[in-house]
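[scheduler] slot 2 assigned
[scheduler] job type: sequence-to-structure, two independent chains
[scheduler] chain ordering preserved from manifest
[runner] begin chain α
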Amino acid sequence: MNLQAFLITFREAFEAILIVGIIITYLNRIGQSKWNKWVWVGVFMAILASLGVALVFQIVLDGYATMGSREYLRIGILLVSSGLLTHMILFMGKQNQEMRSKLQNKVALILGAGGAINMIVHSFLVTLREGVETVFFFAAISSGDISKAIQSWGALAGLVAAGLLGVAVFKGSKRIKISTFFRVTSIFLIMIAAGLFVQAIGVMQDLRIIGSLYKTPGGEIGAMYDLTWFMPEHPIDETNYIRDTGHHPILNGQVGIFFKAFLGYTQDPSLEEFALYWLYYVMVFVLLARQRKLALLAEAKAREEAEASAELGVLSDGVAAASTLAEEQPGNTTAV
């Protein structure tokens, strides 16, 4: 869980820092630094609101637990979290000049409207979104124990790392490639999202909400394979394996817990878990490849338009120069 908490906090906190940093930098550049304090007021309020959301969410989760319905809520959290992570990877990872210009335009409109309230609300909302997403993801990776995820060293390390990277981006002398950061973290977030998705499938099959196309002769959900001999997904499974076979697995259950939490590893996946896990990867990478292709086409079109405009400009300059030269030639004067 710590690694998941680190990656999620690192990514979400850095997105918030990046957005707030762009706003502050823009205000300083246009000589409107007097609004900076209101931006920070909005950020502080968003942090408090996010903690409030975490508290309310934890109360709701505990309430479902007392009613014996926690697993059903967990399924929803796992699926929604997987969807949110996928959305973030596909549509919210483009931290580029376009995002910068859009933010600056919004800030310019807010300045035009005037009022500290508008600036507070804007910075509050952009920060709160990241905070609420983090709370939701923490609920998914901690099986509903949000406080455990918040207090983990992974969450703290993620905040520190995001802060240091933010300082490097806005204060450092070296240029940091934001696109590289989002590409690298997106790879790990795809793994986490796939793991959350397949965990939801597994829980639904355990609760018999969905069945399986592949069953044992006894009618139970069958496993595609069994890797307990290699890496059990929990120390209990390791103990049972040693008791039943007299042999030790190659990797112990502690390692299995890590990979189960991080990648959704299952020692004996059902047909649906196996197929949907890899289908998720195929779907995401196809969509990413399509996005990349569209971006390249847009860049090529922009270059062609720029080249055509430049050629037209050169041609116009040539015509103008020829016209001027013709007028300056002797004998080309017009009699009045």
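[runner] end chain α
[runner] begin chain β
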Amino acid sequence: MNKYEYVKKQLAKTNKKNDENYIVTRIWHLINDYDIKINTQQFVIRSDNNQRIKYGLIDLYFPQFKLAIEIDEAHHKSVVNQSLDQIRKNDIVNALDCEFIRIDATQPIEEIHNEIDQVVQKINQLKDEIDFVPWDIDKEYNPSTYIEQGYIDADDNISLKTVADCCNVFGAGYNNGYQQSGAPHKFEEDTDIKRLLFFPNKEWNNKLLNNEDVFTEYSTDQLKNEDYFNKRMFKYNQKIALFAYSKTSTGNFEAVFKGLYALNREESRSKGVLTYNRISKIMPTYYPTGDIQPVRIAEAYNEAEYKVAHFYTEEQITKFKVKYSDKYKVVITATK
């Protein structure tokens, strides 16, 4: 899929809602920048309520800027809906760690255009202020992009196409004929790499909960579930580098990176359902063993001393520090 096809698909998803279609397409055409990626009807897993999962769709989302745009049509004006909208907004902001802007579609066209202009101005301003990475539709699906970067971050909303791609981000070196749902991590021996289904199906009822900080793994086949439960509890690796196989803004099912999770044995035993807690949204990536590798000059660690990134150039270190500020500790391991 090229950029033209992708953008057409995004805009087409707004066709049945006149206000949304008008405002979204006007924003896109006024931006007039093919280095900026847009997602319409961005799917979001919101906070759960007593294990009941809630989902949300954002009218327009700019992943490079973590900027969500919501178009408020007439039905949003009721007191009840305004209250629900505020709850929904809070859930989305918490889930995506994003900025949220509303455009009131019930205003006169001059006011609507004024709010659209403010959004466009903000996007252009953000592009100048941040370490902007142009949208490259080919590179974003290529595991080498993240291997060379030295890390992969769930907050970057990264999707890959195959299980082999998911494993290759961590140095597996598989070809695309690889048919399993995952594989043991070749460099972090306590970790498995898994692409799991998170939509209704005949075999599994997996769930992402608590703004994706928790996930559960459960087979609808009782005997299979019991067997897998025992193997995961007592035999298999206790950590999972998770990719959720779900429908993305492209309209296709893709493997979306969610982070590193650790099995909560006590919770799993108590509920009888395998339950995992996210311990990091960011993980280091690896070159395959047989590849010629650049010299690793630094590493980054989180507060729990888990290594989250590798660096091969001074420029990478600088970009990482700008992006994450003091969130992670960078340790120099060699000089070039």
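[runner] end chain β
[qc] chain β: The mean pLDDT is 87.
[scheduler] slot 2 released
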